[in-house]
């Protein structure tokens, strides 16, 4: 958990409705690559901690007997339930709780996954708890966009989203320090997940990079959704100034691309794997 910051239930308040449209997807085939690496065969149980609207949970559910999604945000869980129904995924269970409340009577799992959520938790406590919840030889998996990817080989067909200018606009409305729920992140979110997880007693680390490839088109509506899907610019943070912020954001996007079309390279997906020792 970021030093000097306390979690509260407004961290992603109002963001669930924007998540699917605003966020870039993980690389196609990431679920299959992970299933092949771990020999997943439809048996055992999956726990997705901080599952949000179910992006990773629903992609992996078919490789397990049961897939459990845990998140403290009721709106995120409602969106995950809606998406499960729309996709016909019937082996999911959704639980409203924080990671710090584990094991929460949920039982034993073959795999526990954190998809860009581990940094929001009390990491040492949560990693130690997850170790006890895994079956012998079970895996803790961390999924994220690949950081510092290689330089793009060629330009995109439309302008790239003006993320720096968008961030500057957020700072103009919300102040120079990144907001997160009712608090701020002076030093951002922590990294070094590997050290924390190893300290808890995990071993047999492995790494997969699943290439995404290709360029995706993004519209102004997509980028507005991206802004509102983030904890640093969640809708509630703007209060009564939200319409003004959205007006100024759309004006910024029109200046960057008068036709309202942007292009963005899809990021590769990085998957880190640790195992619970069989003798633990």
Task: Describe the structure using short key phrases.
globular; 32% helix; two-stranded antiparallel sheet; alpha/beta; 280 residues; 9 helices; Rossmann fold
Blueprint (SSEs and pairs):
Layout lengths: L15 H7 L7 H9 L6 E5 L5 H6 L5 E6 L2 H14 L4 E5 L12 E7 L7 H11 E12 L17 H12 L3 E3 L2 E3 L7 H7 L3 E8 L4 E5 H9 L13 H15 L4 E5 L3 E7 L5
Parallel strand pairs: 1-2, 1-4, 2-3, 4-5
Antiparallel strand pairs: 5-11, 6-7, 8-11, 9-10
Helix pairs in contact: 1-8, 5-7, 6-9, 8-9
What does this structure look like?
InterPro entries: Diverse_substrate_MTase, Methyltransf_25, SAM-dependent_MTases_sf. This is Methyltransferase. One of its GO terms (biological process) is methylation. The protein is of the alpha/beta class and 280 residues long. The chain has a single domain, classed as Rossmann fold, CATH 3.40.50.150. It is built from 9 helices and 11 strands.
Q: Number of domains in the coordinates?
A: 1
Beta-strand percentage? 15-25%
Through-space gap between termini: 26 Å
The percentage helix is: 25-40%
Order of helices and strands: HHEHEHEEHEHEEHEEHHEE
Number of strands: 11
Q: Give the CATH architecture.
A: 3-Layer(aba) Sandwich
Q: CATH first level: which class?
A: Alpha Beta
Could you give the order of strands across the largest sheet?
Answer: 3-2-1-4-5-11-8
Indicate the multimeric state. single chain
Q: Count helical runs.
A: 9
CATH third-level topology: Rossmann fold
Structural class: alpha/beta
From the alpha-carbon coordinates, what is the Rg to the nearest angstrom? 19 Å
Report the uncertain regions: none
- The geometry reads as globular
């Amino acid at each position: 958990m970021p030093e000097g910051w306390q979690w509260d239930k407004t961290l992603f308040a109002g963001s669930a409705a924007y998540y699917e449209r605003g966020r870039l997807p993980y690389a196609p085939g990431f679920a299959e690559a992970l299933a092949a690496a771990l020999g997943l065969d439809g048996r055992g149980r999956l726990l997705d901690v901080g599952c949000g609207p179910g992006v990773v949970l629903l992609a992996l559910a078919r490789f397990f007997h049961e897939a459990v999604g845990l998140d403290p945000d009721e709106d995120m869980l409602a969106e995950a339930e809606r998406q499960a129904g729309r996709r016909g995924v019937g082996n999911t269970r959704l639980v409203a709780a924080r990671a710090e409340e584990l094991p929460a009577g949920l039982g034993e799992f073959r795999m526990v996954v954190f998809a860009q959520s581990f940094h929001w938790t009390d990491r040492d406590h949560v990693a130690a708890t997850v170790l006890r919840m895994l079956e012998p030889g079970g895996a803790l998996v961390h999924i994220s966009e690949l950081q510092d990817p290689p330089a793009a080989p060629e330009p995109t067909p439309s302008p790239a989203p003006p993320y720096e200018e968008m961030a500057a606009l957020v700072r103009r409305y919300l102040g120079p320090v990144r907001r997160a729920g009712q608090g701020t992140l002076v030093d951002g979110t922590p990294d070094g997940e590997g050290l924390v997880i190893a300290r808890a007693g995990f071993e047999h680390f492995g790494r997969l990079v699943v290439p995404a490839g290709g360029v995706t088109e993004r519209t102004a509506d997509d980028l507005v959704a991206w802004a509102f899907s983030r904890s640093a610019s969640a809708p509630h943070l703007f209060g009564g100034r939200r319409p003004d912020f959205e007006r100024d954001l759309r004006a910024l996007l029109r200046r960057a691309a008068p036709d309202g079309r942007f292009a963005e390279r899809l990021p590769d997906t990085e998957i880190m794997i640790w195992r619970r020792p069989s003798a633990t």
